[in-house]
Design goal:
With 614 residues, the protein is an alpha+beta fold. The protein contains 11 helices and 27 strands. Strands 1-2-3-4-5-6-7 form a 7-stranded parallel beta sheet. Helix 1 packs parallel to helix 2 (53-69), helix 3 packs parallel to helix 4 (125-140) and helix 8 packs parallel to helix 9. It is globular, with a radius of gyration of 27 Å.
Amino acid sequence: MWMQQGNDINKLNFGAYGKNDLENIKSLGADVIRLPINLNYYTNGSPNYTIDSLLFRFLDKIVDWAEELQLHLILDNHTFVPSVPTEPNIAEKLVPIWKQMAEHYKDRSELIYYEILNEPHGINEADWNKAQLEVINAIREIDTVHTIIIGGSNFNSYNSLDQMPVYEDKNLIYTYHFYDPFLYTHQGASWSTPSMEPVKNIPFPYDEARMPAIPTELENTWLKWSYNDYKKEGKISEVRKLLDIASEFSKKRNVPIFCGEFGVYMINSDPNDRIAWYVIIKHYLDQLGITWTAWDYKGGFGIFNKNSLERFDYDINIPMINALGFNPPPQKIDTFSPDSSAIVFYDDYISSELNFTDWSGGELKLYETDSPKAGEFYLSWENSDRYGNFSFFFKRKKDFSYLVSKGFALDFWFKGEKETRFEMRFVDAKINNEDHPWRNAITIDKSKTKFDGSWQHVQIPLNNFSETGSWDNEQWYNSQGKFDWKEVNLFQIVAEHNDLKGIKLSFDDIKIVDSNPVSVASEVTLPNEFQLYQNYPNPFNPTTTIEYYIAKETHVKLKIFNTLGEIVNELVNENKRTGLHSVAFNATNLSSGVYFYELETPEFSSIKKLIVVK
């Protein structure tokens, strides 16, 4: 989840998603995004519940993108733990939080919506309805324009809609969630009580011949009754009757209704049955005239293939997209080849190609704002235990063999005051039981950088890293020279030699770049306008690198043309952030000769010549 990653805003991986995700969702034909936010957590707590300014910096970017793309955006307060009941005095949190949100967004377009709280539960209807009214009134003291989304208790149940009072405010949308039959939609779910992980292969609609027996460990739980009742609850007609409840409420009250969530957990469900469920629910909602958002984009309920890397151009579940009535995007054939251009770990944000973990026992902040070396933020790390680390996991393993052979280097800015030692290392993948995750490391100490409190530029060729061993199977394995640059799994910064108590280390612009001094990639000073650079090497066979600088975040196209003006390759066609970018071009399939490459954005266009020699 984008804005729902834990309770520490300074460790939220904002770079996990970006404007391109909003563009991709819009390209499907969607016109609304419901954005879950751990809103209550990103405050300083009682009594004022002041929202962290960093959250507003992040949300403002998303709001800007949504307005630019003309997407409706629901700011969904998704501070939600199924096992923790909503407090009877929840208004003491929600009122100050939503007053701040209303003050901050009152002048934004009407594409922005406020959703007070996702799935209140464990609170009686009267207490929740009273709290919800207090929040509505608090928002309206500040913002009379934006639509507020409200819902009933009991996890936004359709059965709780009718328990809500008749609110005088006419600019409300009433929401409910739909996951029926629950035994079917949540088979495999670990977060229910008891865990439904043993539940699998429940058919939809009900099919006696395919219906499995209840797992033995669930015999004496409430799930036994769900299994017994599924013959009825698993019928399409019964599911439609439940959807009718919300529709009848809407007609009776003459108020707009919105199905804010519906979905099937994919882990243990049959793929064809899952698609059938979505077809039935989506079509009936449309028939009833009820607007909806499905849960969710990525993850176990998402629109990507199970156990995939969830890449929009490769891993979309096309039958799912068709079931939801969207436009299926063309899918590319997946290939795996050595990386041949710069790799970004951190440049204000963690790359979307990475997952991130922190295991240090100290304090890690991804978004320090006082005097970054470049851009908006830098990363700081202090008071770590010995062996504490933070890790950048590649979502897909990397082959850096070409980069090593071409002299690429780990490149970063560093700042520290107290002299110390720490390790930076790559760890390869464990490919079988006989293999181990080997470490290839370099120690950073006073021989590599100054510890004087100022920013220092550090560049270490990848071929200077050396294998140190492996920790696996709860034991240490000494170095055997088996680290494989073709199977890189992660990159770590580690307090390997000593703890870092009382020590603060800061990092910015952590990358792998071409260390060739004539390469633009290794220049410290960057331009302040769009630029397209001459490819290198040139002439070339078969691979060359093209670099370009983007002065502001925008959509970028980079194409290769022959002398007749025909497009022979499209290297880039997507949104790019501000900064220096590089892309490798492989001309194996082209004949010798002169070609041209063009960089095109809405604000800029430039063409240069390249020569293929075979």
